[in-house]
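If I may wish for something, please sit down with the protein I am sending here and say whether tokens and residues agree:
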Amino acid sequence: MPTRHLDLGCGPVPRNPYAADELYGVDLRVPDGADPGRFRRANLVLEPIPSGDDHFDSLSAYDFIEHMPRLVVLPDGTTRLPFVELMNEIWRVLKKPGGLLYAVTPAWPRAEAFVDPTHVNIITERTHRYFTAPEFGASIYGFHGRFRALRVQWIRKRVAYEAPNPDLVQRLRSALDIVKRRRLHLLWEFEALP
């Protein structure tokens, strides 16, 4: 059976870090001439991910989650928590157990987290704990998904996929990058739990 991957906020060129057989994308704009079966338009601040439950083997979000507001007040005065809702949606569309999330975002304390005025959701090295075992801290805000953190680490943005278990040379390079402040983005790699 072919593997399926969804890239959130994909723009005209979706990424496929796990080299899935089938690639799909969701964005505010659908590229001209894009296959409507593979590229869907959705405003994920207010709309669910346009997909069925347990549909994707993997999902990526490159430079995306920092654009999801934590709180939105609607015209009728009600409030929503779009970031928590998005994490529920990601869990919903991933196959369980074992569906993979690969998210890369600029994070605090790096200046890149704040430079873009559309960054409204500042992520830290500990934000993942709200969505991962054993804490699931966002459950008090309506999060009902379940993830296990496989990796939370600083990476270089230009890297399309940061492989786990680096060798000694890669670990030394990584340490030097961190000291020289070249690793500016935080990687979340999560596994969906049942």
Residues 82-93 form the longest helix (12 residues). Residues 40 and 119 are 23 Å apart (CA to CA). DSSP finds three helices and nine strands in the chain.
